[in-house]
Amino acid sequence: MSNLIKNILSKGWVSRIFWKNRHVFQPEFLKYLKSIQDDYRSKSSYFNELISKYMDQNEILVLELGCSSGSALYGIKEKTNASVFGIDINRKAIEFCIRNFSERYEEGFYFTNKYDEEEILRFINDNNRKEFDLVIFDRVLYCLEDDEIVNLFKSICNLTNYIYVDDFFYSDNLKTSTYKHRKWDELLAKYKFISILDNKSMYSASEVVFSRSRLYKKAK
Q: Which one, of 183, 181, 176, 182, lies nearest residue 208 by Cα?
């Protein structure tokens, strides 16, 4: 992806339009979905390590917002037999996920192109649970406006024990950037989540962004 496109996509509302219609702007998008799905183990292995270290691996329940091809969820389900819920605004990505998971599994997965709390609660209840074990925000929150993030956190923070965030983190050392950086630790602390793991982002580094990969746990 060119630097020009990256700069354009750094604007949240523009980014959402692009991701929602990526199959139109980039016709090769469906081939891309297949390629990253074939390489799903490289990403999902990281999440499986987190699950193994921090969570009870019996009847794991995982939600990912911005799931794209579902590669992370696919690898998690393969390793832990988790029940997974994926959300992505691109309907072609959701169609791909449903088709791909249906070829191997008869149940334990649900994919949709919109965030609907009623659907999410129904999924939790159908699995005889009260909340998710893990919610994944993998390089997706930067696309949202501040008020959208507040509304999302108000909803989802009551429905999970752990939250994973890979995004752009505010830093005093970062002078300029086309991407909006936020104080995710402070934002999540308002909902009683504390950072328990801080790593470099899984994505390529850049001098104009400060990206981190952090795991948050709900304080008791």
A: 176
Our CA angle for 138, 113, 76, nearest 5°, is 45
pLDDT tens digits along 120-173: 999 999 999 999 999 999 999 988 989 999 999 999 999 999 999 999 999 888
> For residues 76 and 100, is the Cβ–Cβ distance under 8 A?
no
Which CATH class for the 3-160 domain?
alpha beta
- For the stretch 40-69, pLDDT in tens is 567 788 899 999 999 987 789 999 999 988
The string of DSSP codes covering 35-51 is HHHHTHHHHHHHHHHHH
Residue spans of the domains in the chain: they are 3-160
- Evaluated on CA atoms 161, 62, 166, 56, the torsion sign reads positive
Please tell me whether residue 89 adopts helix, strand or coil conformation.
Answer: coil
| 136-157 b/e (C-beta count within 10 Å ≥ 16 → b) | bbbbbbbbbeeeebeeebeebb
